[in-house]
């Protein structure tokens, strides 16, 4: 176990591009894959990497996230100095919300100092991937680095949304530009750029000095690692290294997804139901942990040809009852009920959704506890869905918000 390492998970993002899924919850708390929350992947990576001192920094709409971590991640032993601790904004240093990623860490320096880590790994709580952080920490120490940044090749178009770096032959970062309009390509790869994954390992003492210097700049800084801290470190000639992403997903291509938009979220979710899914959730050597409530197993009811409870190419979670309805390529979260003669195609139904008789849902995301009335349709008539106030993504996915009262449209 890496007892001299502290992990800090930044979990305070608004996730505005995921609205309405983020109207009542932070982006890291958005459900994913039926039983998981997005933050479960980062936290599972920490546990699987033998990192068991973890701070989760929250900010916006954190109630759902706090409850999930309290219920599903309370198994670490404080007596052995193992913990996952949720830290809300305390305004100990400044009377403001976090102004950027660096400011979020700066405002929690007091808590970090109490843990006294040799190295601090800073992580985002809103990405889907598997990674052994221990290997990155070992690399960081071997290089005697002040900072190590995880990276992977990206298309030039996608790289506009990330930090882009250049390196020398030894992997030392020689330039770093945050979200450039014209990303510099990798040598020998004119169609690719080397993109930051937002995963940082700092020598903690060096990090303290940098954070205090940045805070002193006040309005002259965005107080962000990508925009301010890293470029200044490179310019000063500090030891800043790139660490190539090593995937624990055990597939041909490395898997890392930023589900920052509704369409990206929908496609990443639907990838899970492929015959050979890109993301392997069934790997016992790298388990993804989450909160598992005490629920009965799923049940399928009725076998008549015109009233058969069945689900094809789908994920069906605990507590689901498919009662005489048909599901094709669906993700049915815990407690979903599919009534007779209903049809669900290419859709994600969150916990507790109830689909009435003869209702039809296609290419949709339906948030928690929505009751779909008998004969109701979602995703079949774009004009009608817009009139009802539903969100429709650029790729035509209809999104129904949490607790939406659909009876008023009947």
Automatic annotation (TrEMBL):
InterPro entries, sorted: ADP-Glc_PPase, ADP_Glu_pyroP_CS, GlgC_bac, GlmU/GlgC-like_hexapep, NTP_transferase_dom, Nucleotide-diphossugar_trans, Trimer_LpxA-like_sf
Alphabetized Gene3D superfamilies for the sequence: Hexapeptide repeat proteins, Spore Coat Polysaccharide Biosynthesis Protein SpsA, Chain A
Say if the entry is tagged with keyword DNA-binding: no
Q: Which GO terms describe its molecular function?
A: glucose-1-phosphate adenylyltransferase activity
Q: Which residues form the Glucose-1-phosphate adenylyltransferase/Bifunctional protein GlmU-like C-terminal hexapeptide domain?
A: 296-400
Q: Which NCBIfam families match?
A: glgC, PRK00725.1, PRK00844.1
Task: Please give the function described in this protein's UniProt entry.
Answer: Involved in the biosynthesis of ADP-glucose, a building block required for the elongation reactions to produce glycogen. Catalyzes the reaction between ATP and alpha-D-glucose 1-phosphate (G1P) to produce pyrophosphate and ADP-Glc.
According to UniProt, the name of this protein is: Glucose-1-phosphate adenylyltransferase
Q: Where is this site: Could play a key role in the communication between the regulatory and the substrate sites?
A: 59, 97
Q: Which Pfam families match?
A: Hexapep_GlmU, NTP_transferase
According to the UniProt entry, what is the EC number of this protein?
2.7.7.27
Q: Which family does it belong to?
A: Belongs to the bacterial/plant glucose-1-phosphate adenylyltransferase family.
| Swiss-Prot/TrEMBL catalytic activity | alpha-D-glucose 1-phosphate + ATP + H(+) = ADP-alpha-D-glucose + diphosphate
Q: Is Nucleotide-binding included in the keywords of this UniProt record? A: yes
Q: In which pathway does it act?
A: Glycan biosynthesis; glycogen biosynthesis
Q: Where is the Nucleotidyl transferase domain?
A: 7-272
């Amino acid at each position: 176990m890496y007892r001299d390492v502290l992990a800090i998970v930044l979990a305070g993002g608004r996730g505005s591009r995921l609205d309405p899924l983020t109207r009542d919850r932070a982006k890291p708390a958005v459900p994913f894959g039926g039983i998981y929350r997005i933050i479960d992947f980062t936290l599972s990576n920490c546990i699987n990497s033998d990192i068991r001192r973890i701070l989760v920094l929250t900010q916006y709409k954190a109630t759902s996230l706090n409850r999930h971590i309290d219920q599903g991640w309370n198994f670490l032993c404080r007596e052995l100095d193992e913990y996952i601790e949720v830290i809300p904004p305390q305004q100990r240093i400044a009377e403001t919300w976090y102004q950027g990623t660096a400011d979020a860490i700066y405002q929690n320096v007091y808590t970090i100092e109490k843990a006294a880590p040799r190295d601090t790994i800073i992580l985002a709580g809103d990405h889907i991937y598997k990674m052994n952080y221990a290997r990155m920490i070992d690399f960081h120490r071997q290089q005697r680095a002040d900072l190590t940044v995880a990276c992977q090749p990206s298309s030039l178009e996608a790289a506009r949304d990330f930090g882009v770096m250049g390196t020398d032959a030894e992997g030392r970062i020689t330039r770093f530009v945050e979200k450039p309009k014209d990303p510099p390509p990798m040598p020998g790869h004119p169609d690719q750029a080397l993109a930051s994954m937002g995963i940082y390992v700092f020598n903690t003492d060096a990090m303290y000095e940098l954070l205090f210097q940045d805070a002193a700049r006040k309005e002259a800084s965005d107080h962000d690692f990508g925009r301010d801290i890293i470029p200044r470190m490179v310019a000063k000639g500090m030891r800043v290294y790139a660490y190539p992403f090593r995937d624990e997903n055990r597939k041909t291509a490395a898997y890392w997804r930023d589900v920052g938009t509704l369409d990206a979220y929908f496609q990443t979710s639907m990838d899970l139901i492929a015959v050979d899914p890109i993301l392997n959730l069934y790997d016992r050597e790298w388990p993804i942990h989450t909160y598992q409530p005490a629920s009965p197993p799923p049940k399928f009811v009725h076998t008549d040809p015109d009233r058969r409870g069945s689900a094809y190419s789908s994920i069906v979670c605990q507590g689901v009852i498919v009662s005489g309805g048909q599901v094709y390529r669906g993700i049915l979260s815990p407690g979903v009920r599919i009534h007779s003669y209903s049809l669900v195609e290419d859709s994600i139904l969150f916990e507790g959704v109830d689909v009435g008789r003869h209702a039809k849902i296609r290419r949709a995301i339906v948030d928690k506890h929505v009751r779909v009335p008998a004969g109701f349709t979602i995703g079949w008539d774009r004009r009608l869905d817009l009139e009802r106030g539903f969100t429709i993504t650029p790729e035509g996915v209809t999104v129904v918000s949490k607790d939406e009262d659909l009876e008023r449209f009947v």
